Amino acid sequence: MIIQKKPDYLLFASDAKNGELVNFPDVKRGWGVTIDQTASKPPMEWMNGAFNRIDANTLYLLQQGVPEWDALVLYPTNAIIKYNAVLYIAKIQNNNVTPTDTTKWTKFIQDASTSQAGIVKLSSATDSESETIAASSKAVKIAYDLANVAKKTAETDGTTTTKNRVKLNSSINSASETEAATPKAVSDAYSKLLDEINIYVAMNKSTTFVYTAKASDNSVKLPFAPSSILVCVNGLTQAIEKNYTVEADTLYFAENSLIAGDIILCLLNPPKSVVRTLITTNIVSTDSANLIKEGTDGGALLRNTDVQFIKSINIEQ
């Protein structure tokens, strides 16, 4: 067998004159029809029609490459046909079964998926979640440009006018406007502020009395008899325990408990809210053993052996 050369694609009798070519009268019977009609002598017109038919079918196959599906054809297993511009292969022998029936046919090349290679449709969408189509170059470029903008934004530090990334800072004395305070910084600042505010609030809302002790002092004369008093010796945070009592307008200390130069700060009639705040923020001891003791005047004596003493009449706990 030799390899055939490329055909000339000419149709037999395609240039026949009018009347020289007619369709063969009985294709299925073939030449036998001449016995009945032309004394077994086929006319020229029939011969032209027969050979023209053969060439036309052959040229159709050469043009199509793969024949189109037809309901009149019996297809064997593994037959390949074309249907709606898609190639199919027969799973089993069948006829008059459209190729979309997956029990008889399967696509010659399967659609692509995440589990198999195949034919895939392109899409330029950037918001699709499909796993059966592929991203076009345009979609990739759009996504890349958006990601690039987001990357540049993420790499830009935030300011007081723009929202971006910020560095955390636990300092409570920073003047930065490009860093964010951590919860620790807020807590530290709040605690420090409370310590300072409570002292100032107490001093601003009470009568403040300051006295410098002399070597022989055991008592301090107050400007009036207070209903409650907060006493501090040598500073709120550096107090030295000095046992004392209050009688009318006089503050009495234990003998020899004061030394010359001791600074005695008295807040007379501090507000109840200030006293409670001082207790809850641990400026005044919350040690139950030292917190409340009965006073001789029927009031409550609140003590903190490390910081200061509060002598109170009718101070709510």
Mean pLDDT: 77
Radius of gyration: 54 Å
- What's the order of the H and E elements? HHEEEEEEEHEEHEEEEEEHHEEE
What is the count of DSSP helices, taking H or I runs of 4+ residues? Answer: 6
Overall structural class, as computed from helix and strand content, comes to: alpha+beta
Largest sheet: 6 strands, antiparallel
- How far apart the termini lie comes to 116 Å
The helix fraction, in percent, is: 10-25%
Descriptive notes:
With 317 residues, this protein is of the alpha+beta class. Helix content is 25%, strand content 21%. Strand 17 (300-303) and strand 18 form a beta hairpin. Mean pLDDT is 77; it is low at 236-241 and 281-317.
Question: Which labels suit this protein?
Answer:
317 residues; alpha+beta; six-stranded antiparallel β-sheet; three-stranded antiparallel β-sheet; disordered C terminus
Concise overview:
Helix content is 25%, strand content 21%. The chain contains 6 helices and 18 strands.
Secondary-structure topology with pairs:
Elements: H1 33-37, H2 44-64, E1 74-75, E2 80-83, E3 86-90, E4 94-95, E5 105-107, E6 121-123, E7 133-135, H3 137-154, E8 167-169, E9 179-181, H4 183-204, E10 207-212, E11 219-221, E12 228-233, E13 244-247, E14 250-253, E15 263-268, H5 272-280, H6 288-291, E16 292-294, E17 300-303, E18 309-312
Parallel strand pairs: 6-7, 8-9
Antiparallel strand pairs: 1-4, 2-3, 3-5, 10-15, 11-14, 12-15, 12-18, 13-14, 16-17, 17-18
